[in-house]
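Handout, page 2. Input:
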Amino acid sequence: MRCPAHCPSCGSRDVKVEKIDYKMEVKHDGALRNLVISDLEIPICQSCGEKIFTEEVDAKINECL
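Output:
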């Protein structure tokens, strides 16, 4: 996965791809459900902690949904 050149939030160039368990709430059948995507590779700013949702990351999340 390509890593962005800088963080869109703080401008730091210290962005690294990490594997995380990404937790989210999804509405399904009229109810909110907790979903965990294990080992999601996502660029994260090492300065401010911002998760950077690239097209590749979005595609992986949509695939899991």
